[in-house]
Amino acid sequence: MIARGVLGVALAAVMLICGTMTFLYLGTRTSKATVPPAKPTAATPRAQAQSLPGTLYLAQSGAIYSLSAGRFHQLTPEAGWTMPSLSPDGNSIIAVKQARMSSDVYVLNRFGGVVRQVTNNAAPARLAYDPGFNHWSFYPRLSADGATLWMAYDKPKYGYDVILSIWAMPFGGTIAQGKLWTSAADYTGGDVQPVPVSGGVIYTKYDYGPDLQLVGRLWFTNRAFSAGRALTSPDEDCRNPSVSPDGTQIAMICTYEKQVSYLVLAAWNGSTLGARRAIITNQMVAQPTWAPDGSGIAYLAPGVAAGPFQLWWLPRAAYAPPPTPAPTPTPGGPHNGPLPTPSPTAPVVVKPVQVTTNNGFDATSPLAWRG
Hints:
mainly beta; Neuraminidase; 4-stranded antiparallel β-sheet; 24 strands; 5% helix; 37% strand; globular; disordered N terminus
């Protein structure tokens, strides 16, 4: 029995590392040449150099931090807290707390205090040694009306085989009232990162492409347990969907099956994606998140090669330059005929701004932003 338990723990660890946390390597890319990451509250220089709008929530070393008015505040202890998201009114934080063999969804107030525990995924004490009796919840998101909680959850589960699928449950209810929405492929990492949208849910589906390489695709489905359909192709290898505040664009990370991580934007009309635009191609980008006021996109990326992940800010002008003004008549000039063409001017290149320099944020944890 002891040998079986040890084998079970080992198998579960392998499955969890290789399956559920496909993006985990990003969070551990550190260089021995860099200094150890500092806590955001002790970082020097502080983030006042770039004061972002509203309040941004991030995870580092098992704790959740907020950033507002250029200052970080630690909201939870370093106790496995990660993946914050927000209620529609912005007054509650929905987050994950990870334990050694399970993880659960909690509701926190804006200051990090626990309001209630939503799931109870740890096995009873008499079965706690067996990973097959424990469960995992990740990437919680509330619907726009606040009534439905979406998450990646490992049911159905067969022994030690951890397969994450998209689930929806009443926010005020229990997982027993939840409904399985997707059918995840075995030994892939499954379906993760749900983003509820009008008419359905967008999520990341991991599966094997035509070349038998494991890739991510943005997927959309509008009803429970339907096949749904792909929004991106296997060769694009995309993940981390984030919908703009006006619902017309999606930011994502695409690797094109290479050791890269590009920030890519595409128009979204409620059913399909438009042409892709690679906005950042020279950084290892993770977790793009739109500012609530539409003024830009925050994301995580190393500050130096192979360094820990820092917070970056991409102003709106970098990906949505202002339209070219219409030519105006020359004072005293003719009043008929074509207007003069203005002299061409060199476009202004707007670059991303590095907000922090010596932190090490969790690149597997989405950011949350309150206006």
